[in-house]
Write a sequence for this structure.
């Protein structure tokens, strides 16, 4: 057992500086499987090595997608290795042979988690989900269900369910993305509104969006040149002088 | 025309549809035209090339089109009179200033233009006497002289008179003549006067016999005026006494204000939904045009408009205004409008008076009334200008009155931040406000050219100053609270500059944050100044816009703060909650979804719980489910719990946590918790309409229902808790499946030929409109250049021809002269030789 820091370091470089040089990369199988089972950031990192093994060395990993599915928790949008993780997830989900229920479960879970994500992650995940829809047209019922029940009391999707097949994702709709159409960031709102229309054929290129950072986003906004600047027309009456000011209720100027 | 003058440009091929301009030319005609033109212009110039005399037209107003001809003539006449006044003309024989026409004074003629002017007179005057001509024109020819001398033979036979004598004689004669004329005229005048008198006497006799009907009319007119007439007159005057623009009643003003606000609100909504306005890109500015022009910002409080109440003018605060009359000088910018109105009023008033004067019967009542009214209006108007100032003055307490009076009335805009600070240093808040206002007034952009840039700078200084006040050890938040007003006013005047400077601050702050993250791997919350700036943004700009140049970056920055900054102390929690409040305020109108807000509130609730709670929810960055910095808001002291009272969190805590007792800190913690509950409640109310409201609030709900130790809380806290929970629960949610919008069917692609509009044959059509325009311009420039060069060349040829002809002329003249000389010499020589031969012969 390694300390967490070292574990992470090893896993970060494993796939491109260790595995290609080993005679028997399959020997790393156990190590990676264990690492994958630990959970959290380490699992995310182990994913990369595991992918190399599955891809090039015919590793059979039972319940791989189930494990991947369970890896999705709110922190994936906040951790440092977000770009790497979503790059791999994109790869794993690119196969068109995956069953629709699985992809739908992924879509539903990702969008559910997106309700807590920062804007830079949202800007990445929405095109990501759109791409999934393009690859798996069977999942489009999530955004377009003409003959469905008119009124449901709750979302049929079961978030807590570990097994993707049991999550009833295909009976649900993507209300989360609809909620995100009200996001405060104009670009996110626009991106989410794309799902209102039927999708175009071409996949979006998300490689540029994976590494998007909040600061870049801010910088982009600040550098935009405005033609004219709308102004507040309500006359100020002091710092906390607005109507129904929340600050006046809880803060004092002392 | 003459077929021999025509030159036909033959074309090799006939092309259909091509229009040719130059197939037939008239070279001879055009050449002669060109030469003629050159003769008129270039040749003239050439001939006058070494002459420096210029003709100057000094006639008054000759080229001034603004003056009407009559006025011009009048002005010229007065000028002439002024010039001639007091100047004795040495050539004026009559020595008097009277202008005369045919020997008569013009004034006299004007006065009695019907007199005399008898025919005989003109005849006489038309001819010059013989002596006069003799004297003036060198005594005439010999014939005349002879005649004269023969006439006067008997007296002065021996010698002709000297010239001087002659002239003297003539002067004497003319004087005599004049005398005579005058006497004649006087007598004529007397005669006419006498005649007039006689006529009058006779007229009175005639008048007595006038028919009765005429008399009656006069009688009707003379007695006191009819009531109807009076009313008519009155009405007429009332119309005239009214100002050109009707004054608005209070209701109308209110209605207008309401309409304005409604329009602004509609505008805001449109921006909130992010609807692009393509049809008219020029959005109406938020302030009406004249407001911006004179810096008089419309707001409900400061403004008191002239209004009528029950038909009478509302005149308020008369005394106060009079006290402050001295300050009128400052208000120039504002008063401009008023002055205009005043003028128009004065005009109408004076018109009134004139009318009255012209009228035969006086209508005293209405006259008085209207004048009174006009005067009242004027007074009111005059004071309206100072209203703004006086309003502000009123707010001040009497104590500062004395100190305030010492403040100078004019300020220059500070050039640097240091001078700005020194300007405000040591002043009270009220004084600072007055100073700022006066700086604004004195340097209004309409008064001088550079003022705009200066005032724009002032905005930056003010922001910086506010930031400095906020970073003080004891932040002067009350001052900032007041300083926001001038900031708002400046922002209304210069939106671009204001947004730029705020963006600059935001960029700096975000840059700092990013640097800290890169260096340390984690960030800390910024100081109070940044928080205040963020708050100010919400005051200055509409935060509900779909995209806004300032607000959107501010959103981004706040989002970073809530997700990136570590929570290690109680102050961090307060700052975070402050930002949460900001977020809520920003989205209060647009109801936009802010995930960070919910995450943070969840995190705050999480750290208020004791450790090792069972989880049913996940907190996200920057909060961690396990580890240190937990229980930041956890209060277990029973006593403190009991004694807690909800209090407003003082912002100064953010910069400086006083060495307070544990109880107080616990109380602050509880206040934060209460604030958190309230925010959750507000969030719930805000996001109620979102389709996945339940999912968003799910973790919070679980935490609230399962983990919060409600029973341990004091009663007040329980109230907060329950109101928050109530807002979360009992929300019946209906899920309707999503349906895509119907897509327009895309028409099949068809292979119809692409039709390109051909505007002109033989021209290249490539490029878009702009490109084409550019090409056209280049083409035109080329053509013009060629033409100009050709013209210049022709000018040069013309000049050379002229010079050559001059030289030839000169040469030929010289040759002729030489020939003449030689000829004369030859004849001389010949003659001389002949003589010689003769002599020799003889």
């Amino acid at each position: 057992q390694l300390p967490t820091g070292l574990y992470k370091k090893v896993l970060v470089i494993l796939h491109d500086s260790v595995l290609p040089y080993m005679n028997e990369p399959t020997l790393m199988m156990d190590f990676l499987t264990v690492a994958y089972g630990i959970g959290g950031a380490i699992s995310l990192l182990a994913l990369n090595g595991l992918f190399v093994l599955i891809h090039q060395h015919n590793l059979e990993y039972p319940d791989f997608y189930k494990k991947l599915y369970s890896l999705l928790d709110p922190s994936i949008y906040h951790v440092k290795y977000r770009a790497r993780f979503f790059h791999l997830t994109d790869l794993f989900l690119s196969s068109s042979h995956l069953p629709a229920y699985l992809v739908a479960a992924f879509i539903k879970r990702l969008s559910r988690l997106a309700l807590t994500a920062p804007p830079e992650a949202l800007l990445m995940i929405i095109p990501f989900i759109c791409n999934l829809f393009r690859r798996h047209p069977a999942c489009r019922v999530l955004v377009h269900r003409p003959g469905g029940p008119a009124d449901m009391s709750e979302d049929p999707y079961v978030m807590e369910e570990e097994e993707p097949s049991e999550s009833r994702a295909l009976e649900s709709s993507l209300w989360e993305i609809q909620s995100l159409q009200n996001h405060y960031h104009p670009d996110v709102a626009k991106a989410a509104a794309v799902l209102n229309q039927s999708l175009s054929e071409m996949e979006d290129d998300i490689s540029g969006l994976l590494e998007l950072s909040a600061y870049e986003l801010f910088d982009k906004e600040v550098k935009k040149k405005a033609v004219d600047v709308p102004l507040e027309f309500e006359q100020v009456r002091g710092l906390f002088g607005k109507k129904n000011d929340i600050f006046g209720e809880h803060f004092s100027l002392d | 025309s003459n077929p021999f003058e025509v030159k036909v440009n033959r074309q090799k091929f006939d092309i259909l549809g091509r229009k040719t301009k130059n197939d037939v030319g008239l070279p001879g005609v055009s050449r002669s035209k060109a030469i003629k033109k050159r003769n008129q212009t270039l040749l003239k110039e050439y001939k006058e090339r070494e002459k420096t005399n210029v003709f100057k037209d000094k006639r008054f107003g000759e080229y001034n089109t603004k003056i009407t001809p009559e006025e011009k003539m009048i002005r010229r006449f007065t000028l002439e009179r002024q010039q001639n006044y007091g100047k004795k003309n040495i050539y004026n024989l009559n020595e008097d200033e009277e202008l005369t026409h045919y020997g008569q004074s013009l004034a006299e003629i004007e006065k009695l233009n019907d007199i005399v002017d008898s025919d005989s007179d003109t005849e006489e005057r038309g001819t010059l006497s013989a002596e006069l001509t003799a004297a003036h024109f060198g005594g005439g020819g010999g014939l005349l002289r002879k005649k004269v001398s023969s006439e006067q033979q008997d007296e002065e036979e021996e010698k002709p008179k000297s010239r001087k004598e002659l002239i003297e004689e003539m002067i004497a004669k003319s004087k005599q003549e004049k005398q005579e004329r005058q006497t004649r005229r006087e007598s004529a005048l007397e005669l006419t006067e006498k005649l007039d008198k006689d006529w009058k006497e006779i007229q009175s006799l005639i008048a007595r016999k006038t028919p009765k009907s005429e008399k009656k009319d006069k009688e009707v007119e003379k007695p006191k005026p009819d009531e109807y007439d009076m009313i008519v007159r009155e009405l007429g005057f009332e119309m005239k006494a009214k100002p050109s623009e009707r004054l608005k009643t209070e209701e109308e003003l209110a209605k207008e204000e309401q309409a304005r606000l409604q329009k602004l609100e509609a505008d805001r909504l449109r921006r909130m939904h992010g609807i692009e306005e393509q049809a008219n890109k020029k959005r109406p500015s938020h302030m009406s045009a004249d407001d911006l022009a004179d810096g008089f910002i419309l707001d409900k409080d400061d403004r008191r408009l002239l209004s009528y109440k029950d038909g009478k003018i509302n005149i308020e605060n008369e005394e106060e205004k009079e006290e402050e009359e001295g300050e009128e000088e400052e208000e120039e910018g504002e008063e401009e409008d008023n002055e205009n109105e005043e003028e128009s009023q004065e005009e109408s008033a004076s018109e009134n008076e004139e009318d009255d004067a012209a009228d035969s019967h006086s209508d005293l009542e209405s006259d008085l009334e209207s004048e009174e009214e006009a005067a009242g209006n004027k007074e009111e108007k005059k004071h309206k200008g100072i209203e703004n100032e006086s309003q502000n003055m009123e707010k001040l307490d009497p104590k500062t009155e004395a100190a305030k009076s010492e403040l100078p009335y004019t300020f220059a805009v500070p050039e640097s931040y240091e001078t700005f600070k020194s300007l405000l240093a040591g002043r009270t808040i009220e004084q600072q406000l007055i100073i700022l206002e006066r700086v604004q007034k004195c340097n209004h952009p309409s008064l001088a050219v550079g003022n705009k840039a200066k005032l724009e700078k002032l905005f930056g200084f003010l922001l910086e100053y506010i930031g400095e006040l906020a970073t003080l050890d004891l932040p002067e938040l009350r001052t900032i609270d007041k300083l926001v007003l001038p900031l708002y006013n400046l922002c209304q005047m210069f939106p671009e500059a204001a947004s730029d400077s705020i963006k600059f601050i935001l960029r700096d702050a975000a840059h700092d944050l990013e640097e800290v993250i890169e260096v340390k791997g984690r960030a800390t919350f910024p100081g109070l100044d940044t928080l205040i700036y963020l708050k100010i943004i919400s005051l200055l700009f509409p935060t509900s816009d779909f995209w806004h140049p300032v607000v959107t970056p501010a959103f981004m920055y706040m989002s970073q703060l809530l997700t990136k900054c570590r929570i290690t102390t109680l102050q961090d929690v307060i700052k975070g909650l402050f930002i949460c409040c900001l977020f809520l305020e920003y989205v209060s109108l647009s109801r936009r979804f802010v995930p960070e807000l919910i995450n943070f509130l969840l995190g705050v609730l999480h750290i208020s719980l004791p450790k090792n709670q069972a989880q049913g929810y996940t907190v996200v960055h920057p909060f961690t489910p396990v580890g240190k910095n937990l229980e930041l808001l956890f209060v277990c002291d029973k006593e403190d719990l009991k004694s807690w009272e909800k209090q407003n969190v003082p912002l100064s805590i953010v910069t400086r946590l006083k060495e307070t007792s544990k109880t107080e800190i616990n109380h602050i913690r509880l206040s934060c918790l209460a604030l958190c509950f309230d925010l959750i409640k507000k969030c719930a109310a805000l996001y109620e309409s979102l389709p996945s409201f339940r999912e968003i609030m799910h973790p919070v709900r679980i935490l609230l229902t399962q983990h919060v130790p409600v029973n341990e809380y004091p009663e007040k806290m329980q109230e907060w808790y329950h109101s928050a929970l109530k807002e979360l629960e009992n929300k019946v949610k209906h899920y309707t499946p999503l349906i895509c919008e119907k897509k327009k069917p895309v028409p099949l692609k068809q292979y119809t030929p692409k039709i390109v509009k051909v505007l002109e044959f033989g021209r290249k059509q490539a490029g878009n409109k702009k490109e084409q325009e550019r090409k056209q311009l280049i083409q035109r420039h080329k053509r013009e250049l060629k033409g100009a060069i050709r013209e210049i060349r022709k000018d040069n040829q013309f000049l050379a021809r002229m010079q050559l002809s001059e030289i030839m002329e000169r040469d030929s003249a010289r040759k002729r002269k030489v020939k003449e000389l030689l000829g004369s010499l030859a004849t001389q020589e010949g003659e001389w030789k002949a003589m010689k031969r003769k002599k020799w012969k003889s």
